[in-house]
Amino acid sequence: MSREAPTEKHYVHRRAGHVMISYDKRLFVWGGYMELAHTHPYTLTTHSKCMYHSAIDVWIYEPLLDVWTRKLSRGDIPQQLSGSCAAVHNDHMYLFGGTGCWTNNENDEVENSCNSLWRLHLPTLTWEMLHPEGTSPYSCDKAACWVYKNRFYVFGGFGPPREFEVMPKIKVQFVRDNIFHRGWIDQLVYYDIDTNQWVWPDTTGPKPTPRAAHSADVTGDKVYIFGGRYREVRMNDLHCLDLLSNAWSGNLTNEQDANVPEGRSWHTFNFISENKAIMYGGFNTTQQVLKDVWILDVSNGSWQQSAQHKVGPVLWHAAAVAYPGELTVYGGIKNNLLDYSRPKDHAEEMVVLRFSPPSLQRLTIEAVCGLDLQLRSHWCQLPQTLQHILKTRTCPDRIL
Questions:
Q1: pLDDT attached to residue 373
Q2: Residues 151, 166: Cα–Cα separation, whole Å
């Protein structure tokens, strides 16, 4: 299986299993893989023809300019990975786990999961591989993570079994898969940024079952976790962890309520305001790629499906909030990831879901760009900053 880094601009937007975070009103994208056209069939236990994106590249999207910029990072650059999770604390992005490619003793390429922790200094794009004290999490991919105060949390994931020799009192449930030498995990662990150590907190209340490809986001002093896959089921349970008391809520999804999302994995779940979270897309138990958009109001626990946002089906994409009330969705796959009879159809478009009006400045810029031919001769009368924005947004050479 080829693991060369894609170099063509055509491949920039063909990625899945990547991470995307928001920082300084810009979106930073790293990692992931893309599948290429293949001529021979493959199965669940054989490799497809795919390539990981370069680990040195960080792609930055500026919504105001509507432009992508490729930047080269430096420092302790991670290996090429997909299925990692990432979150931002101050000026750093913390990146955990994922599946990468290594060479075994027979010089064959093999995929395996890792439990390494990196942080990227976003102003300088400098990587640092961290070596925390304490018992590290399971090696895994498809975990969920978030930042609260000076802690980087990891929950769940799918990876190989392990033994805890150092801290046998750690309570973790591992459920092995029937096919692979890996399984689903219910680990809850955080990296203490101040002390540089992994901590396994004690919690009360009903802990969520092991899972992978779920989603999580934090608001205030609480984190909400939705769905994911456990064995052959993709779930629609919603859990809340109070990060002050470490108390789990139990399943908040009312199965008697018809107006709740169906179970799914490989979806996104992001807070766009203090009380409103948006869930989009994913993959259900019957292996259908989903395109529905749901709004969760945590103030009253109600779900509402959005009828105004017409988007296409997508799974294993990424989403982030650069501006309040606005969710940007990027990448992913539009057809069945487990259908090995056909190549994967990458979602190369960027989708912006707005749930509140943008600023008057942004609306005006978008309107002026839409009337480029009629108004360009008048741009010289505008301030230099606005001229730069308009020229950048209408430049034909920018990466779309």
A1: 81
A2: 22
